[in-house]
Amino acid sequence: MHETVKARVINGFIYYYCLVPPHARQLMRTVKLEHNDDTVLDPTDSQLVARGSLLLDGHECGTWEQRRDGTWSARLSASGETIVEAGRKQLIERLALIPL
Fold first, then answer.
1. For residue 23, is it within any domain?
2. Which residues pair with 7 in a beta bridge?
3. CA distances (Å), 83 to each of 11, 25, 77, in order?
4. Domain presence at residue 43
5. pTM of full prediction above 0.85
6. Does residue 49 belong to any structural domain of this protein?
7. How many CA atoms lie within 13 A of 65 on its CB side?
């Protein structure tokens, strides 16, 4: 499947979206990674760069973290599942495809 990922800044937030050919479309979620204040970072975890709330379709449903090794992860509160990807873009793409 050939898809194009684009980003748009609206009111200071970065929104990523995928352009997927019509024959390959499926319902995709809107993903928003909200950045929490840096004071919520655990000072004993030297690998943690940033952390925040995860919103899917406007509903808070977990948290995300950025690590110094470049990986990004999301923890889904309902299922307890942890998703780890090599970068922010890949994490958002994967979260957008979580079944509705």
1. no
2. 16
3. 27, 22, 12
4. yes
5. no
6. yes
7. 17
Residue (of 59, 54, 57) closest to 73 by Cα position:
54
Q: The tokens of 35 are what?
A: 């950045």
Give the residues across from 33 on adjacent strands. Answer: 54
Instruction: Evaluate whether residue 10 is within a structural domain.
Output: no
Tokens matching residue 45: 């975890």
Q: Are strands 31-35 and 48-56 parallel, antiparallel or unpaired?
A: antiparallel
Domains of the chain: total: 1
Say how many residues make up the chain: 100
Phi, psi angle pair for 89, to nearest 5°: -60, -45
Residue 94 neighbours by CB distance under 10 Å:
15
Joined together, the tokens standing for residue 89 give 């873009």
> Domain of 83?
28-96
Two tokens, residue 49: 């760069």
- pLDDT(86) > 60: yes
The predicted-structure confidence for 65-80, as pLDDT tens digits, reads as follows: 999 999 999 999 988 9
